[in-house]
Amino acid sequence: MAPVKSELQSVAWPPAPITTERLVLREPEARDRTAFIELLASPEVGTYVGGAQPRDLLEEKLPQVPGRRTGLFVVELDGAMIGTVTLDQRDADEPRSDLAEVELGYLFLPSSWGRGYAAEACAAALAWFADARPGVPVVLSTQTANTASMRLATKLGFTEVERYEAWGAEQWLALWTSY
């Protein structure tokens, strides 16, 4: 019996760059390495995702072209990386893995917060995914303490499914489906 392909394995990757009104979503390039280090070492960015990573370790271990994998978009503004949007394959042992195989995630440099870039980029990534895999649901999980992320998810059309305890905090799980 042939193995079943997951939702992300069945999409053509990388797609052509996605252009929005202000942004470009594209696959990572070597010129993004410094911005990846800034993003992953930022205490503000790490607040709800397990903390900042040590800058010296990132400098040592991060590949020359960081993050090149199916489902990871670099978000570019005026030629510079300001964040990432991911569509990740979920593990079967994750909470409510029965709802969806794919999870939306995003990280943005603090200097880009509060300008609507995350909403614009996430909406573009979801639209691309809806074209690639029509009707396939996507989940988003965040700590309930991250009220900005919950507001963004609601703005994107995610609806709350449940709250649960994990990693020492209350988590919020929401579902999005294109039609």
What does this structure look like?
With 179 residues, the protein is an alpha+beta fold. It is 26% helix and 28% strand. The protein contains 5 helices and 8 strands, in the order E-E-H-H-H-E-E-E-H-E-H-E-E. An 8-stranded mixed sheet has the order 1-2-3-4-5-6-8-7, with helices on both faces. Helix 4 packs across helix 5. The chain is globular and about 35 Å long. The model is unreliable at 1-5 (pLDDT under 50).
Give a quick precis of the structure:
This protein has 179 residues and is α+β, with helices and mostly antiparallel strands. The protein is 26% helix and 28% strand. Strands 1-2-3-4-5-6-8-7 form an eight-stranded mixed β-sheet, with helices on both faces.
SSE blueprint:
Layout: E1 18-19, E2 23-26, H1 33-41, H2 43-46, H3 55-61, E3 72-77, E4 80-89, E5 102-108, H4 117-132, E6 138-143, H5 147-156, E7 159-166, E8 169-176
Parallel strand pairs: 5-6
Antiparallel strand pairs: 1-2, 2-3, 3-4, 4-5, 6-8, 7-8
Helix pairs in contact: 4-5
InterPro entries: Acyl_CoA_acyltransferase (IPR016181), GNAT_dom (IPR000182), N-acetyltransferase (IPR051531)
Protein name: GNAT family N-acetyltransferase
Domain N-acetyltransferase: 23-179
Task: Give the total of beta strands.
Answer: 8
Terminal CA distance reads 31 Å
* Gyration radius from CA atoms, angstroms: 16 Å
Global mean pLDDT: 91
Contiguous runs where pLDDT drops below 50 for at least 5 residues: 1-5
Order of helices and strands: EEHHHEEEHEHEE
